[in-house]
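Subgroup meeting minutes
Present: P.N., E.W., G.H.
Scribe: E.W.

1. P.N. recapped why we're keeping a running log of single-chain structure predictions: easier to compare across weeks, and new members can see raw inputs and outputs side by side.
2. G.H. added today's entry (156 aa).
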Amino acid sequence: MKTTSNILLLTVIVTMLWAGCSKKELPPSPTSVYSVNGGTTSHNNGQLCMSCHKTGGTGEYIWLIAGSVYKVDQITPSPNGTIYFWTGPGGTGELVATLQIDANGNFFTTSSLIPALGAYPQVRGISGATKAMSTLVVTGDCNSCHGVNEAPIWIN
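Output recorded in log:
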């Protein structure tokens, strides 16, 4: 009987820990730096953020996720939207994290929000329009592909 009680207790504890860790909400720690709607501290839209914001780089912080979002013309920054990270494509599965786009059209964070197995990003503009990536990403260096080998990230 004692063994059954111990197994039940262990199951409850593991379930509680799993449920508590299933979503990452910003700020994940008091020392994290991240973009916020309306913020204006970012710069260099479309540039390779992590060429400076890396270990040994000239950027003040080391970004683990960073990029730029544009309006439909793919030139004008699209401010104050949101980036979502899902476990399934097209905004399906579990929402694991969100990151706000600042007033300059940039998003960034020093926190590791993408799970080790990857996530499917989705962008939502201030109009409410959404666009989702159909491919799984495991890195947060968004401008290393978007605006280089792929179209810039854009939303209405």
